[in-house]
Structure formats: structure tokens, C-alpha cells
Write a structure and sequence with these properties.
This protein is mainly alpha-helical. The chain has one domain: Winged helix-like DNA-binding domain superfamily/Winged helix DNA-binding domain (Arc Repressor Mutant, subunit A, Orthogonal Bundle), CATH 1.10.10. Helix content is about 40%, strand content about 5%. It is built from 4 helices and 2 strands. Strands 1-2 form a two-stranded parallel ribbon. The termini are far apart.
Length: about 90
Amino acid sequence: MKGTKFQIKVWKYLKKIPKGKVKTYKEVAIGIKRPKSARAVANACAKNPYAPKVPCHRVIRSDGSLGGFSAPGGIKAKKKILKKEGFYF
């Protein structure tokens, strides 16, 4: 993988989120031992060039909303992928 140390750490963590499950940006930040870095986690997700192998679509906001999705199709695509994996809103 090519990216900053932080991005690679986030992307490796994202690969551990199973299909049909989601985590919040804050949960990912805590999971990588950087609990105050939720915004940086969101930025790393936005710059993920390895989707869908690195499933940034499985990360949502703390309020339960989807957040962003920089891949083609935007939020609609994120929602569709999550539904296909068995996650329902």
C-alpha cells in the first residue's frame, strides 16, 4: 500500500471490519490507538485508492448517518454496497 503511515494504519484496520458491519470514524480512531483522530480517519477514508478491497464504505458517522463517499456514485453507491453486504439502515 502507498500512503502516509497514518493512512496505511487506517486502511489496514478497515480491512478487519467484516461484511454487514460498520464502525464509526471515532471507533476506527480508537481502534488504531488515536482516539482524537476521527476527522483524520475520515480524511484517510476519503483518500482510499484501494476500495472496495479496503472497505472504507463500512465507516459511518457517530450519529448513524453515512458520512461521505468519494468513490463514483457517492452516498448512493455507499448505501447500495452496504445493503448488498447485509447492513440495513
